[in-house]
């Protein structure tokens, strides 16, 4: 029992405590309450798994309730997509509800609150209301309409309901406390006028309740016992409870709000507004673009429902915000696909191979294992012939010692087939290799048991028979953003970090067994990664999406770039000490090449800031990055840190640092003006001619 209790997350602990204190288990009820103003994303998946997971654990109903209180942004398309996503994830709701189901009840409660003197119609503009509310450090003040009579408020509110007034002329506000430390309690809006068509109620209503009013009251109507939301609603809890206080009947279940940390995933954005911008600006093809973090996008790319549920289970439920590495999501996917995806062969960048000693009219059908991880997956027949395609990168005319693929005079094994040896090549007029001529060991068929079949060779390559191959469009997807936190940089627009190579389309040549592949099928293209059939496929052409690589290329790249920057800093030290100018120049070229090769904006930014210290070599490194990287500029550095860098660098004893700093300042007019007096002082004392020449040009 102790072990079981220890494994409970904090919301389960709360529920267990409620039950032990007498709350009846048959009154437990949960809900998943999306707003139908966009498609669900991976962050919502965490909430879905939590809400429906609680329902399964406690055998309690879970409602799907659409909080559809804003017709300006909500559409039936989003409702349908949300339902499809939930079903695909494997969850089933008890009742399908809508906040719009309760519009009449919410209106009646609002009238009751007006009669009780705790709600009033305000006729100020939204700008005036915002000013009148004050600031977090300054109390708000009562507005001119706060003490309207109950009769006038009732008349105005009915007029609002009847459509007698234009949008923006009146709002209904709760009368709470204009001096509350919680600004949400400073007479929050309850209703606004919207002459908009609603996807369910059509044009029946001219006023719509605000989310904060409708949400808690909807929970109460549905008798939700535990209203679970993300941490940004912590400040809303007091308001949630205040609204419930106005209508609560002690004979009914009173909902209680509990907050958990939402899912923050690196290398993506989770804001619906920003995701909508990606769609509207046609940066992606739609909400279900395989580069999007939407559940529909992940599904189209080839993610499995099991991998997403597993991911949500691993990250758990916590009270503190943290950022989860995208690599963990990909790990969960690889783990699932490795067990379940059939292995097939495909070549995406083909080079022709001719087996010169294989008969021209001969064909063989070789046995190929479908999945070594699944003993029940069986085998398939794989056609083999004289002419094959290999991946172009699997051949080098002259290979280095540790190249374990095909090269002239060397042998490799063809997967499920024979050992071949490269004998000669053909080239076009530009010197490009167009064909490789090889010979094969006739007695080396894989699995035949012959002595030749047991020979060890450099490597094993995948291939397809040209005669039998089927052509397909293959979309090679990568992460949509190059930065791990694209929407957290105040000085940058998140669109600045769009990965221009996030989609590359190639023609692939696939083994013929894939001719019968259907939408939803997933495969491992051996040595290339996992791929899934896309919905754009048709009877005349298959389209495959790359779901994920066999290895985490981004993690490897991140480590390489971090290691490269550390190594470059050591090269800086050697460069500064080198007395031979020719050798020093060669070292500088290497340093600059390294800097230019780094794509990680955050890593570059952090490296510059870390090197702002009283060390000439460190300052040189920071200034070199600032001048030679095309991924970062002086505008991207925190102004205080940038000023410190300039101040320390201008005074550096190392001439190279002073020169670089002056060059960087020349490109930064605002900072140049700030440092003009200091530069004049230095000019009067400067003895180095090169530095002095730059100063003279800058200051006169």
Automatic annotation (TrEMBL):
The UniProt record lists the Glutamyl/glutaminyl-tRNA synthetase class Ib anti-codon binding domain at 341-441
UniProt keyword annotations, A-Z: Aminoacyl-tRNA synthetase, ATP-binding, Cytoplasm, Ligase, Nucleotide-binding, Protein biosynthesis
**Residue stretches making up the tRNA synthetases class I (E and Q) anti-codon binding domain:** 460-534
Pfam families the record matches: tRNA-synt_1c, tRNA-synt_1c_C, tRNA-synt_1c_C2
Q: Sorted alphabetically, which SUPFAM superfamilies does this protein's record hold?
A: Nucleotidylyl transferase, Ribosomal protein L25-like
User: Record's InterPro entries?
Assistant: aa-tRNA-synth_I_CS, Gln-tRNA-synth, Gln/Glu-tRNA_Ligase, Glu/Gln-tRNA-synth, Glu/Gln-tRNA-synth_Ib_cat-dom, Glu/Gln-tRNA-synth_Ib_codon-bd, Rbsml_bL25/Gln-tRNA_synth_N, Ribosomal_bL25/Gln-tRNA_synth
Any one Gene Ontology BP term: glutaminyl-tRNA aminoacylation
Known catalytic reactions: tRNA(Gln) + L-glutamine + ATP = L-glutaminyl-tRNA(Gln) + AMP + diphosphate
PROSITE patterns, per database record? AA_TRNA_LIGASE_I (PS00178)
Q: Does the keyword Hydrolase apply?
A: no
Q: Specify whether Ligase is a keyword of the entry.
A: yes
What region holds the Glutamyl/glutaminyl-tRNA synthetase class Ib catalytic domain?
27-338
In short, the EC number is: 6.1.1.18
What is a single cellular component term in the Gene Ontology annotation? Answer: cytosol
**Which GO terms label this protein's molecular function in UniProt?**
ATP binding; glutamine-tRNA ligase activity
Which family is this sequence assigned to?
Belongs to the class-I aminoacyl-tRNA synthetase family.
Task: Please give the name of this protein.
Answer: Glutamine--tRNA ligase
């Amino acid at each position: 029992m102790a072990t079981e209790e220890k494994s409970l997350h904090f919301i389960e602990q709360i529920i267990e405590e409620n039950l032990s204190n007498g709350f009846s288990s048959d009154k437990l009820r949960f809900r998943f309450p999306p707003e139908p103003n966009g498609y669900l994303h991976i962050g919502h998946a965490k909430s879905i798994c939590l809400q429906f997971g609680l329902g399964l654990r406690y055998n309690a109903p879970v409602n799907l309730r659409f909080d559809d209180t804003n017709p300006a942004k909500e559409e039936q398309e989003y409702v349908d997509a949300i339902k499809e996503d939930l079903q695909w994830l494997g969850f089933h709701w008890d009742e399908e509800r809508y906040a719009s189901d309760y519009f009449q009840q919410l209106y009646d409660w609002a009238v009751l609150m007006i009669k009780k003197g705790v709600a009033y119609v305000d006729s100020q503009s939204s700008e005036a209301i915002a000013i009148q509310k004050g600031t977090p450090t300054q109390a708000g003040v009562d507005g001119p309409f706060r003490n309207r009579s109950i009769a006038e408020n009732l008349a105005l509110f009915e007029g609002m309901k009847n459509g007698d007034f234009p949008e923006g002329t009146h709002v209904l506000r709760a009368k709470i406390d204009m001096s509350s430390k919680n600004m949400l309690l400073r007479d929050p809006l309850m209703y606004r006028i919207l002459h908009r068509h609603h996807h369910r109620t059509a044009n029946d209503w001219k006023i719509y309740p605000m989310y904060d009013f409708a949400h808690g009251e909807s929970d109460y109507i549905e008798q939700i016992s535990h209203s679970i939301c993300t941490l940004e609603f912590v400040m809303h809890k007091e308001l949630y409870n205040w609204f419930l206080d106005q209508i609560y009947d002690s004979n009914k279940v009173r909902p209680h709000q509990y907050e958990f940390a939402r899912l923050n995933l690196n290398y993506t954005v989770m804001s619906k507004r920003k995701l909508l911008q990606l769609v509207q600006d046609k940066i992606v093809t739609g909400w279900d673009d395989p580069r999007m973090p939407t559940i529909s996008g992940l599904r189209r790319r080839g993610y499995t429902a099991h991998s997403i549920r597993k991911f949500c289970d691993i990250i758990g439920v916590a009270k503190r915000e943290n950022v989860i590495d995208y690599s963990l999501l990909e790990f969960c996917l690889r783990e699932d696909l490795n067990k379940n995806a059939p292995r097939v062969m495909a070549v995406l960048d083909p080079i022709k191979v001719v087996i010169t000693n294989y008969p021209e009219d001969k064909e063989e059908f070789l046995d190929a294992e479908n999945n070594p991880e699944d003993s029940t997956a069986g085998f398939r027949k794989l056609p083999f012939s004289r002419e094959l395609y290999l991946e172009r990168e699997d051949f080098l005319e002259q290979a280095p010692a540790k190249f374990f693929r095909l090269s002239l005079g060397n042998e490799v094994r063809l997967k499920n087939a024979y050992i071949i040896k490269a004998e000669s090549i053909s080239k076009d007029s530009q010197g490009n290799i167009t064909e490789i001529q090889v010979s094969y060991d006739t007695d080396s068929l894989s699995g035949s048991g012959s002595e030749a079949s047991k020979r060890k060779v450099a490597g094993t390559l995948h291939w397809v028979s040209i005669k039998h191959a089927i052509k397909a469009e293959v979309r090679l997807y990568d992460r949509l953003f190059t930065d791990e936190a694209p929407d957290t940089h105040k000085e940058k627009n998140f669109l600045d970090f769009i990965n221009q190579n996030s989609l590359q389309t190639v023609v692939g040549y696939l083994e013929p067994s894939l001719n019968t592949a259907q939408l939803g099928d997933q495969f491992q293209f051996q040595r290339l990664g996992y791929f899934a059939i896309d919905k754009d496929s048709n009877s005349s052409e298959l389209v495959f999406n790359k779901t994920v690589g066999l290895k985490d290329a981004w993690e490897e790249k991140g480590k390489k770039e971090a290691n490269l920057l550390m190594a470059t800093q050591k090269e800086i030290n050697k460069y500064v000490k080198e007395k031979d100018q020719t050798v020093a120049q060669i070292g500088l070229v290497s340093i600059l090449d390294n800097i230019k090769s780094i794509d990680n904006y955050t890593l570059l930014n952090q490296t510059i800031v870390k090197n702002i210290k009283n060390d000439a070599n460190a300052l040189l490194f920071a200034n070199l990055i600032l001048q030679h990287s095309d991924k970062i500029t002086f505008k991207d550095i925190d102004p205080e840190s940038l000023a410190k860098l300039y101040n320390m660098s201008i005074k550096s004893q190392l001439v190279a640092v002073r020169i670089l700093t002056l060059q960087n300042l020349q490109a930064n007019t605002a900072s140049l003006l700030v440092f003009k007096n200091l530069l004049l002082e230095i000019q009067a004392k400067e003895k180095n001619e090169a530095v002095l020449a730059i100063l003279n040009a800058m200051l006169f």
